[in-house]
């Protein structure tokens, strides 16, 4: 089987194209944020999403140009765990605004840690600590507000 017809090469390239489309869309949406009160700043609400879109675009281009010929897509339990992780992240995006960053991140990170083999209590403690640290970094260090959700009440 030639490299051009190898299913893993085709799969990697298709994934790369899909991720490149996502990176461009994500970067474009990040640029649509309104200019903050007081004028343009070097670090604003669009900075972090723009950096993520650039990294994703570069990574997807690498995947398109140089796919792994020996890659095997996971099947069985591993494939199911990856699908579950994606579902958790989609749910995280949906509950981020209503629940707030700290609660949603605690649930998402705790669930992912638990699915990776940690016991539930330490997994959710890790989720809470990481959520609080990132919340403090963004709100107080970078002065970029994150959704407070239920904690604002």
User: Average pLDDT across residues?
Assistant: 82
Query: Which strand-content bin applies to the residues?
Result: under 5%
Largest beta sheet, briefly?
A: none
- Unreliable spans are none
Fraction of helical residues: 55-70%
Oligomer: single chain
Q: Total number of helical segments?
A: 5
Shape: flat
Walkthrough of the structure:
The chain is mainly α and 153 residues long. It has two domains: 1-73; 74-153, no CATH class. It contains five helices and no strands. The chain has helices spanning 7-30, 47-65, 76-99, 101-115, 120-141. Helix 1 runs antiparallel to helix 2 (47-65). The longest helix is centred in the first third of the chain and has 24 residues, at 7-30. The radius of gyration is 19 Å and the shape is flat. The model has no long low-confidence stretch (mean pLDDT 82). The chain crosses the membrane at residues 48-65, 124-142. Keywords: Membrane, Transmembrane, Transmembrane helix. InterPro entries: DUF1468.
Topology:
Blueprint: H1 7-30, H2 47-65, H3 76-99, H4 101-115, H5 120-141
Helix pairs in contact: 1-2, 3-4, 4-5
Give a brief rundown of this model.
By secondary structure, the protein is mostly helical. The chain contains five helices and no strands. Keywords: Membrane, Transmembrane, Transmembrane helix.
